[in-house]
Amino acid sequence: MAGRVTIAQVAEEAGVSAMTVSNVMNGKPGASEETRRRVLEVAGHLGYRPNVAARNLKAGRSGLIGLIALDLTSQYGLEILRGVADELAEAEQELLVNATYHDAAREKDRVEFLTRGLVDGVLMIAPVLEDKTVELLHRQKLPCVIIDPRRLDVPLPRLSVDNYHGMRLGTQHLIDLGHTRIAYLRGEEDLESTSIRFQGFEDAMRLAGLAADERLVASCDFSYASGFRAAARLIDEHRPTAIVSGADLMALGAIDAARSRGLDVPTDFSVVGFDDLPQAAQSFPGLTTVRQPLHDMGQKAARAMLSLIEGQKLLMEHMEVGTHLVVRNSTAPPPADGAA
Q1: Which 3 state secondary structure label does DSSP give 184?
Q2: Cα separation of 130 and 114, whole Å?
Q3: pLDDT recorded at residue 258
Q4: Which of 20, 84, 278, 316 is the most buried (most CB within 10 A)?
Q5: Which residues are CB-neighbours of 191 under 8 A, at least 6 positions away?
Q6: CA–CA separation, 201 and 167 (whole Å)
């Protein structure tokens, strides 16, 4: 059949009204199961595809979702973005992506740009989110979902992971292996998740009757380089037998720092990360880590966004997804002499 297949052509062949075809293709109730089956069968046979642009125009929408990411150079952000993109593709929505790279002024500028009627909603990954930006989002009444917020009390729909339970699992794994001198690499201090993860570490140590030695705690910035430097210093000065890291990139840096000191991982030194980035499985040895379901986080946030655009109220403003331990080959019992 030449040209674009229309609703009228599908309706004629299926023996129903054009309104019935429209309702079926848009998932609206009213048609019997037999009618629905027949319409879908005819639509597939004729090669009918709904005109998404026209449908959005009729609903007063752009069909675009804005996404503002803190950083598009890290696998962390890219994995979340992939989940968002996969979910929105299923809903025939397009994604407009921006990155701010920790620049609060640029972030506010991007939000102002997107709220000029360009998009139907905004997703934000680990944003700086200054008060003026929050006020702008509230004033414009644009649907917004925050993924991995820097603080959990931000007054917007938000999605985070169970950081506390995850870090307790990672720490307990080392304790169960027999480690007692366990160092800890903290992440960026302006993130609430950094404090929550550290609390999970401290509680796991305390409940096992172990002291969280402050000399074995170092602050980092989530990068490989900062993890390498901090781990090298801790190994040189305090000789822990294991390190728990608040992020995978820091943990991978810690593995290489141990090697640079002549230690074998995991025979002489164990390392646990947090994230389960693709690099964690690809490294040698494979990194034992706490898995954040990053792709799933993106999908769940996108589903919440679509619900808000449809005018639905979310069951809860703060959504949380679980974490679990993935054991690979970077952890083992401590050396027999108890020192790295």
Answers
A1: strand
A2: 17
A3: 98
A4: 84
A5: 126, 150
A6: 6
Q: Return mean pLDDT, the chain.
A: 90
Q: Per-residue b/e over 84-109, b at no fewer than 16 CB within 10 Å? A: bbebbeeeebebbebbbeeeeeebbe
Q: How far apart are CA 91 and CA 149, in angstroms?
A: 25
Q: What's the CA gap between 113 and 67, in Å, rounded?
A: 12
Per-residue exposure over 174-198, b if at least 16 CB sit within 10 Å of its own CB, e if not: bbebebbbbbbbbbbeebebbebbb
- Do you find a cis peptide bond into 240, omega within 30 degrees of 0? no
Q: Which two tokens stand for residue 83?
A: 């989940």
Beta bridge partners of 252: none
Dihedral through CA 114, CA 117, CA 118, CA 121, nearest 10? 70
How far is Cα 176 from Cα 181, in angstroms, rounded to an integer? 13
Q: Which amino acid is at 224?
A: Y
CB 112 within 8 A of CB 100: no
C-alpha–C-alpha distance, residues 181 and 28, integer Å: 61
Q: Tell me 325's DSSP state.
A: E
Strands 242-245 and 318-321: unpaired
- Site of tokens 């054009």: 18
Pick the residue with more confidence: 242 or 15?
242
Contacts of 222 (CB under 8 A, 6+ apart): 187, 188, 246, 247, 249, 250
Give me the residues paired with residue 46 across strands: none
- Mention every residue, 6+ apart, whose C-beta is less than 8 A from residue 280: 248, 251, 252, 273, 286, 287, 289, 326, 328
Q: Are 231 and 243 in contact (CB under 8 A)?
A: yes
Q: Model-level pTM greater than 0.85? A: no
> Contact, 218 vs 187, CB < 8 A?
no
- 60 pLDDT exceeds 60? no
